[in-house]
Write a structure and sequence with these properties.
Elements (H helix, E strand, L loop, with lengths): L9 H9 L4 E6 L2 E7 L5 E7 L6 H11 L5 H8 L3
Antiparallel strand pairs: 1-2, 2-3
Helix pairs in contact: 2-3
Length: about 80
């Protein structure tokens, strides 16, 4: 069972998603757009706020969106404590 949701910055989340082959394509103000190519050339896009500390609800939303592309079990070990 996973522990508590970690307190992460936008840059921390960016580093986590880079491990899953997402790459920044643009940055506008305080948000970064990340993209990777999925199976069959499908473009997979996520937008991450680059704040110093992300709210719990924002982290949960990012994880929920990322889990459309990445298995949730793999994401949980980066977003939650053990």
């Amino acid at each position: 069972m996973a522990g508590k949701l970690r307190r992460l910055s936008g840059r921390d989340v960016l580093a986590i998603l880079r491990r899953f082959d997402f790459a920044p394509t643009s940055t506008r103000r305080s948000h970064a757009k990340l993209r990777r190519s999925g199976p069959g050339g499908e473009k997979q896009t996520l937008v991450i706020p680059l704040h110093d500390e992300l709210d719990v609800g924002t982290l949960q939303a990012i994880m929920r969106q990322a889990s459309r592309y990445i298995p949730e079990e793999e994401l949980r070990r980066h977003f939650y404590t053990r």
